[in-house]
Amino acid sequence: MLTKNVFATRGGVIGVGAVIGVLAALLQYWGNPGNMGVCVACFERDIAGAVGLHQAAVVQYMRPEIIGFVLGALIAAMAFGEFRPRGGSAPLARFFLGAFAMIGALVFLGCPWRALLRLAGGDGNALLGLAGLIVGIGLGTIFLRRGYNLGRAQKSPAAVGLLLPILMAGFLVLMFIYPQVAEQDKSGVLFYSLKGPGAMHAPLLVSLVVGLAVGFLAQRSRFCTMGAFRDLILFRQPHLFWGVLALLVFAFGSNLALGQFKAGFEGQPVAHTMGLWNFLGMLLAGLAFVLAGGCPGRQLFLAGEGDGDAAVFVLGMIVGAAFAHNFGLASSPAGIGPHGMAAVAVGLAVCLYLGFAMRGAKAA
C-alpha cells in the first residue's frame, strides 16, 4: 500500500514536480525549443501540424512527449488497477473548452507548464501570463462555488477508454514508418518543420522515454498545475501547489547549471512582449481549464486512465490549434495574431456562458 500511494504524499508530489522541472530543462538542452522543454499546448499544436490540420510550416512535428504522457499514464493506471473507462459528461462542452483553452494558450504562447518554464528560464513576460492564469482559475472557482457542474461520467467499455491511447500509439508508429527525411518538409503522411520551433527537438527515443516517465509519475501523483491553484484558492489546500513550486525551483536551478537562464523581457525564445494579451490569453486558458476540470497535462493523464471526457478535451485542443493557425489567432514573437483579440473575447464569452448555464446541472 505504501508503494502504491507514495507519489500522492506531499513528498511524492514535490518529487514529481522536481523531476518534471529537471527533465524539462534537459529536454531543452537536448534540442527542444528555448524555454519549451515541455509545453503541452505547443506540442499538441505541433502534432496538429504534423498531421496536416494546419499549414504553419514552422510548427509541425509529431511530439513524442505527448504520446509518452498518455501511454505512461496508461501503464501506471493498468499497473495499479486505476484504469477506469468512463465518459459522457457534457463531451461537446468539453470539446469547446479544449479548443478555447488552446486558443488562449497560443495567444500567450504556452500552457501553464511552459509559463512556469519560461519564468524559470528568465522570461519576465511569463509573470503576466501566470497572473492571468491565476485570475482565470480564480474566476472559475466562483462558478464552482455556485454549483457549476458538467454532470457525472458513466462507466464505458474498456475499448472506448483505450481509443486515445491507441491513437497516440498509432501516431508513434507513423513516426517510425515515416521518419523525417533531410531537407524535406513531408515524409509520407507526416509534415515536418525545416525551421522554427517545430524543427527543434530532442532525439525521438529520448523524448519518448521522458514522456513515458512523466506520464507514469504524474498519473500516480495526480499532478496538475490548474488543480494546484484551484485547491489553494477554493480549499486553502497547498498539497498540489508544492509540486508546482518544486517544478519552478528545480527548472530554475537546472537552467542555471546548464547555462540556459537569460533574464529579461525582450528577445526571449518563442515569446512576445504584449503584456495585456499575455495576461488575457492565459486568463481565458485558466478559466477553461477549471470548467473542464484539469490543465492540459492532467487531461492527457486522465485520458490515459480511460477518461473519454478528458480525451474529448485533448482533441478539442488539437482542433483549436488548427483553427488558431489557420485563422490568424495564434501569436508569434512579433505579437498577437490579426484575429487573436477577437478570438479571446469570443472564448471568454463562451466560457462565461457555460459557467452560468451549467450551474446546478444534475449529475447523472
UniProtKB/TrEMBL annotation:
The chain crosses the membrane at residues 12-30, 66-83, 95-115, 127-144, 156-178, 198-218, 239-259, 279-298, 310-330, 336-356. It comes from the Bacteria. Keywords: Membrane, Transmembrane, Transmembrane helix. It holds the Pfam family Sulf_transp. This is Uncharacterized protein.
